[in-house]
Amino acid sequence: MSKWIEHQEFIPKSEKPAEMPEGIAVKYYLCWLGEPEEITEEQCQEIMKNLRDEEWGDIYLTNNLDLEEDLMQLESGDGLFALQYMRDNSGMTGEEAAWFSAYDPQYLESDEETDIQCSDGQSIIQRKYTTTDKDAVMTAIEYFIRTGKLWNGIPWMKGWQEFDEED
Hints:
By secondary structure, the chain is of the alpha+beta class. The chain has helices spanning 41-52, 134-147; strands at 2-11, 28-30, 37-38, 58-62, 69-77, 80-88, 99-101, 156-165. Helix 1 packs antiparallel against helix 2.
């Protein structure tokens, strides 16, 4: 009988986080129900201001307008921040299709749900996939915009699935 195997790995934050570089590597952002917009240096500053001032509770950052590859997503509310990065959101499996999430180690064994109102109107975010460290989340978002990579100054939970075909 075949079955799905869930994998999980924890990546600690670096003792010496990467510094913020110049430039823009991620081309587009989208606030749910809006149209994708191009990210320029000026837009980057506006994006970060709106997120820091909590005028926006959600954002998607990507180079792929189908939202299927290299997608960073933020959902937030009530002082909680659910920050995720998906390498491949097209239904692929295996480590190459891993997802990464900020997390709260105090809630890892809990299935407690948050009150975050998700941009899609239906998703539920569990508390273990959130953090209250707003400064780290904002830095991770700007770093992603500028590099297209995960910032090492925040701990990440990495997860992926593999299909195990037993004999």
